[in-house]
## 1
Amino acid sequence: MRLLLYGNTCNVNYVIAKYVRRAGVDTQLLVDSTVLLHRPESEDPALRGNYPEWIRDIGEIDFERLLLFPGRRHELVGLLSDCDALIVSGFAPVVAQWTGKPYVFAGYGGDFDLYASREYPRMAARQAIPRNPLKGVAHVALALWLNRLQRKGLQAAARVNYRIPGQYSGTDRLMKDLGLDRRRIYIPLPLNTDKYSPDPGASDARDLRGSLGGDVLFFSPTRHLWGRLPPGRYVAEFKNNHLFIMAFARLCHQERVDGRLVLVNKGPTFSDSMELVRKLGIQEKVVVVWEMARADLITYYRAADAVLDQVAKGGMGATSLEALSCGTPLISYVKDLTAGYGEQPPVLSADSEEAIFGHMVRLAREPAWRTEIGHQSREWLVKYHSGPSVASRYVDLFEKLLMERQDNRRSFPQPGTRGDPTGCKTLQRS
């Protein structure tokens, strides 16, 4: 079996590919972004300028431009066809549907909730037309085209791996709208649990903790998005960071706890967060840092007494998983996830300022409980999200899909030609 992965947002597909290869499967990864966050070297710095043969940098792909240049489009379809099956994310379903290969869509967020939603062209119109009406109309036309192809690409996927049913109502509605309920699965995001791990003796974490001072340290690496929805953003992105800031202020003022809150300067409403910090009079308790390399991020996870993620969507993204893997208690809003795991994660779930405040007070007052929650967090994460366990589920899935494909070909012989990206028949596949 030869597996190819394309669409490496936040290096999720890189981590999947790495562990699937270790399971003995011939696996290739295509990289198409110049943004460090989406390149393998941000996860493994030793890879900078030195990719192994199974990772191929194909240059930056702009999918709007791709639609306008058939030669580049055909080239990409050819690259994606050199395998037995694919794992794709981002806009990759747009071209994966033309390969004639079975593929699994492994979504990360906007590639499903936004790009496949009928709201995507409308959002493009609101954002582009006021700035430049002529160019804006052209941009909206391409957004409509991409949206249509993304929806068809998802409908052509063998399986769609995105969110646990019931986690986010918008996702559930879109799944039903696209007719994907029967092909919907849930395989957790993989994590390198050796890298994201507790290390009580780590001098860098100990030194950081000492330099920041205070009796209890909260770390919130999440981008800031709360209040009024900014242009170009969609509701599923909300974090409601202001609730953490207000709860922390109460901890300092009402409970007289000498706490520290570390915020990362990123997100469209970060300036609003800093204005709130000023109004609440906690400037001396809040530390602002810039986005950082993975190694530094792990140091902050290890140094913190708790990590703060989001109070909005009810699921767990990369920040939540990395904190749990480092054995650090997590405060975040989490819905009932037993449908995906069989048990609830040991997250300090909170859907309000009051709930966050309650967790903060107990974390500050009960160090032994804080330690126990950290141990439980690490054990749960390793059980469900470790790289080898996730890779084995993908291997089993593709063995099943390829076997089904062989059985179907024996029963219903099909022409062996691939689809033509410019042909109407291919575009009408569902």
## 2
Amino acid sequence: MRPKGLRNLRTVQQANRRNQIGSREQMVAELARLEHEKARLQREVEVWRQNQRRTETQLEHVEARLAQLARAIDLTGAESVPANRDNEAESRTWLGMTLEY
């Protein structure tokens, strides 16, 4: 846990008190808490790995599609590129519409 201010900083006395072995009940409670935290972290790591595998698969599909499109563009050549770029600029302009209530 990251300190959020001076009030949350642990003093030397608090650190020593934390490191002392308490009663058996306290040790068993801490053991159970740490085992629970370990299990939670292991589940989280597994979820991350599944997400990583899914993302890698999606990336492979995108790369395959990019390669396919690049080959298709190379096959068509420069024939499909319009010579007049002014029409392309005109097609991007916004058209207005007036509404009356």
## 3
Amino acid sequence: MPGEASKNVKRAAKTPEKRSGRRSKYLMVNVTLSNELDEFLQSVGNRARKSGGYKLPKTLILRGLARVLRELVEADRIDLAGLKTEEEFVKALRTGMGLGGSR
């Protein structure tokens, strides 16, 4: 329907950074995680608080992991050639980080 596209555009204009007049330096990305990984990230954030720091939000944890991944890739510590599955990627990460290839 012609009205549907304009409704989506209107909704997109109401994001928090646009309402406040400033632009965020971050891009919003949807990430699909299993319940197990979601709970793990939550526990990592809570562990920081229990040890005297602040609770770390999952977004902060994931941004930090992405920054470390970028450093590893830029240093050619991870061989990305021919990877096709998540399992292959995890194995390459573990090898590049010196943790062994499998677990």
## 4
Amino acid sequence: MPPELGINIDTVLIIAIVTIIAYILKALIGFGTAIIIMPILMYFFGPRDALVIGAFADLFSNVFLLKKEWTKIKEHPYLYLLPGLIIGTFIGVSILIRENDLFLKRLMGIAIILYIATQFLNIRIKIKKQEYKIIYGLFAGLIAGISGGLFNINGPPLVIYLNSVLDDKVEIRENLVILLIIDSLWRIFLLTINHQVSELSVSIFVPILIPSILIGFAIGSKIDQNLKTKAFKIISHIVLLVIGIEMLI
């Protein structure tokens, strides 16, 4: 078990560096930040404060991204995902509030390992029929919501579904950003009415995460995707695998 650490200069530096790395990745591929940043936040502050901090970071970063390419959205499959996502997030946050920290940390470890497995399997499916798009959208949204409510990690099911119904990368990215903004607002609302938002959460987000997010975006926008993204993802997944195994011990 990791030691209980307060907010000192070492903690601030670690959180800032990990956040910058996470948002370089988001600038490159549009998602994947939570799977990097959440284990570190959970390590230092526990699952509940980590989820609140992560929700604020999601909201800020996705609003920042959406401003760039909103006018390019022509298709709206996020509407099929949204009902399941809303219900799933409610379920996930309800479990988070009731379960103990050790249980949640071990679940997080399992979630990380499963996420990495899906990346290496490179899952690709295509959904053509309209009724299947609706059914699978509800299911993918539900799974994403539960995972997001528990760990702030909702990207993988959403990305798998969007890849199955859309071909244009910009459309996929912007539909994803819309979903993440709505889900962040909903998650913050649920956490607030259940008295989970603490002074610690705000004190970490405002002075540490906001500058780190902006630095990560600035660096990521300068990196050539064709040369850097694959290597960057491989290194990140190796680090995450080690963290995931450590959280199960």
